[in-house]
Specification:
CATH class of one domain: Mainly Alpha
Number of strands: 0
Shape: elongated
Largest sheet: none
Order of helices and strands: HHHHHH
CATH architecture of one domain: Orthogonal Bundle
Structural class: mainly alpha
Number of helices: 6
Helix content: 55-70%
Radius of gyration: 38 Å
C-alpha cells in the first residue's frame, strides 16, 4: 500500500515538471546560430526574415522532432558551415582570445596612460622649478647697451 501511494505521488509530482518545450528549444537554437543566406544579412536566426531563414527553421524543426538536442543541431551546423555560423564565439581554444584581448588591452592601456601622465606631472613640477631657478642665474647674452639703444630706436621709428 505504501508503494502504491508513493508511486501515485511520484506520478502526480512528475506531472508538474515539464520537459523543455519545442518552442523554447527552437528559440535557443535560433539564438545560437547566424543566418547563412545568400544576401549575407549577418543577422541572428531569430531576427532574420529572409527566405533562407524560413527553410533553415523548417530544418531545425525536423532535426528537433527527430530527437536531436539543441547542442547536437548546433554542432551539425558548425560542422557544415564552420564556426562563423555561431552567434557568439566559443569560449575555448583560440576563440578565448576574442573574449580576453579587449579587456586586457583596456587594462594595459589604462596603466600605460596613467604612468605617462604621472611622469608628465612629476617632470612638469620639478622641471618648471629648475627652469625658473636656472633663468635667474644665467648671465645675459652678449648684448651691449648700444645694441639695446639701437633696437629701441628702430622699434620707435616703426611705430610712428
Amino acid at each position: 500500500m505504501k508503494f502504491f501511494i508513493l508511486s501515485c505521488a511520484a506520478v502526480f509530482f512528475l506531472g508538474f515538471t515539464s520537459p523543455v518545450s519545442a518552442a523554447t528549444q527552437m528559440a535557443n537554437l535560433e539564438n545560437a546560430l547566424m543566418c547563412k543566406c545568400d544576401d549575407k544579412c549577418g543577422k541572428v536566426m531569430i531576427n532574420c526574415t529572409c527566405d533562407t531563414s524560413k527553410k533553415t527553421r523548417e530544418d531545425f524543426q525536423l532535426k528537433l522532432a527527430s530527437g536531436l538536442t539543441v547542442d547536437q543541431v548546433v554542432q551539425i551546423y558548425v560542422d557544415k558551415y564552420g564556426e562563423t555560423v555561431l552567434s557568439a564565439p566559443s569560449k575555448s581554444g583560440f576563440n578565448l582570445t576574442a573574449w580576453i584581448t579587449p579587456f586586457a588591452a583596456l587594462i594595459v592601456g589604462g596603466v600605460g596612460v596613467r604612468k605617462v601622465i604621472r611622469s608628465w606631472v612629476q617632470t612638469g613640477t620639478t622641471g618648471s622649478d629648475q627652469s625658473q631657478a636656472g633663468s635667474e642665474s644665467m648671465p645675459q647674452s652678449g648684448k651691449s647697451d648700444s645694441d639695446s639703444n639701437r633696437l629701441k630706436d628702430e622699434l620707435d621709428r616703426l611705430e610712428t
